[in-house]
Specification:
By secondary structure, this protein is mainly alpha-helical. The chain is 63% helix and 0% strand. It has 6 helices and no strands. It is flat and about 80 Å long. The relative contact order is 0.13.
Length: 133
């Protein structure tokens, strides 16, 4: 399976989830959800759908190309689960996902000198030659 086909199948998986959620919203609102007070307007609604389809297609394509999943159903499942997959991957790198990650800086430590048998012996006895005067 090519990555293009995997992306298309993943988009279909994302579209299936969006379609089911849309049907539930239409039933809940008894009409178009964006016409009801308290629901998102049409612009943000369609933007969220486009983002979901893009993420679903991208995750499916990457999963198939990297060998994580194989076949059409695997690409479809990756598209369906794309938001959960991205969320779980983001939890694996909490420092990068935090809002103040840009403020965190890496401060290298000073290199340590290797401990040799002579240096270890002198430290335990108080210095070279026994250490007591």
């Amino acid at each position: 399976m090519t990555w293009v086909l995997a992306a298309a199948v993943g988009c279909f998986g994302g579209f299936a989830v969006e379609g089911l959620q849309f049907v539930a919203a239409v039933r809940r609102c008894k009409g178009w959800p964006w016409r009801r007070r308290g629901e998102p307007p049409f612009g943000p609604f369609i933007t969220s759908v486009v983002i979901r389809l893009g993420v679903s297609g991208g995750v499916a394509a990457i999963a198939v190309e990297s060998g994580v999943v194989n076949g059409t159903f695997g690409a479809f499942a990756a598209g369906v689960a794309a938001p959960l997959i991205v969320e779980q991957l983001a939890r694996q790198i909490p420092a990068l996902a935090s809002p103040d990650a840009a403020a965190q800086t890496f401060v290298p430590q000073q290199p340590r000198q290797p401990v040799t048998e002579t240096a270890a012996a002198s430290q335990s006895t108080g210095g070279p030659g026994g250490g007591q005067a």
